[in-house]
Specification:
The chain is mostly helical. The chain has one domain. Helices cover 79% and strands 0% of the residues. The chain contains 13 helices and no strands. Helix 5 packs antiparallel against helix 12. The protein is globular and about 50 Å long.
């Protein structure tokens, strides 16, 4: 069990660096170039892992229709989501974009009710209102980054969170082998961002430090962290306790952004984060109570 917690804590630390590292890269590199290159690294790493474990042979079990579904999941859930999130990072401060990104569990509940026909209780509604109040608090005094548009940044991050919430529900419903699915998904992300990005944006030559940043995003954040999170949840005696550790990510991300980007941690951002995460934890309590009643 201690190993499960170690994997979870390591994953949270890695995830907490995403906003700051992405922001640093996006200051000089177009968002689609960043997404394409990091997507290639994620695909290659997962391909190597699947080849070593012998899982590539499992690809024969899937039909063309299955790969079309995986491609659709990749387009909506990670290409559109990450592209919008990266755009939000260029318009807002790192901490604001990261906080808004953590609306995705709220979106997951909404889409679960719509697609999976899960019950929408009064407590779930209260939890969602609590999280959306966090948006109001954050938006009330949101400050755009240099040359950015705060309104566009906020809308972009909220839509991105909705895309990832939808992806989580559809991915759960599809029930594919996650190692294979994520490999295909990151390939789709790399291709979908490379084609329009190459023609619509002025791509730049990367420095050694920027290549390291790309490798960190693609291999460590997008691939290694995913695998460690799967290991953390696998065989855990209490999945809820492990899952709740993930909610430390945005709080730790504020600290990482303050250190790497010299962003001052704002009280307004902390208050908004408390409301958003509070709403998510309330949803978790609702689900836990529902499972106990079912038992």
């Amino acid at each position: 069990m201690k190993r499960n917690y170690a994997y979870a804590v390591a994953t949270v630390f890695i995830w907490s660096t995403m906003a700051a590292v992405s922001k640093m890269l996006l200051n000089d590199i177009p968002n689609l170039q960043t997404l394409s290159i990091s997507g290639v690294f994620a695909f290659l790493f997962l391909f190597a892992i699947n080849a070593k474990s012998g899982k590539l042979g499992k690809m024969k079990e899937y039909r063309l229709k299955d790969y079309a579904v995986m491609a659709g999941l990749g387009f909506i859930g990670l290409f559109v989501y990450t592209a919008l999130y990266y755009y939000g990072l260029t318009q807002l401060t790192s901490q604001e974009a990261c906080i808004l990104n953590y609306l995705w569990p709220v979106m997951l509940v909404i889409f679960s009710c719509i697609i999976l026909k899960e019950r929408l209780t009064v407590l779930k509604c209260v939890a969602m209102l609590c999280s959306f109040l966090g948006i109001v608090i954050l938006s009330a005094g949101s400050s755009a980054s240099a040359g950015g548009n705060a309104v566009l940044g906020i809308v972009s991050c909220i839509v991105a969170a909705a895309c990832y919430g939808l992806f989580s529900v559809l991915n759960k419903k599809a029930d594919y082998d996650q190692n294979i699915a994520m490999m295909i998904i990151w390939l789709v992300v790399a291709v979908c961002s490379a084609v329009p990005g190459f023609f619509a944006q002025d791509w730049v030559m990367l420095s050694g430090t920027q290549w390291l940043g790309m490798i960190w995003l693609g291999v460590v954040v997008d691939a290694v962290a995913y695998l460690m999170w799967a290991l953390a949840l696998r065989g855990a005696e209490n999945t809820a306790q492990i899952a709740n550790i993930a909610y430390l990510t945005p709080f730790l991300s504020l600290v990482v952004s303050a250190v790497l980007l010299k962003e001052q941690i704002q009280l307004r951002a902390l208050a908004a984060l408390v409301f958003i995460i509070g709403g998510i934890l309330l949803q978790s309590l609702c689900e836990g109570a529902g499972r106990k009643r079912a038992e």
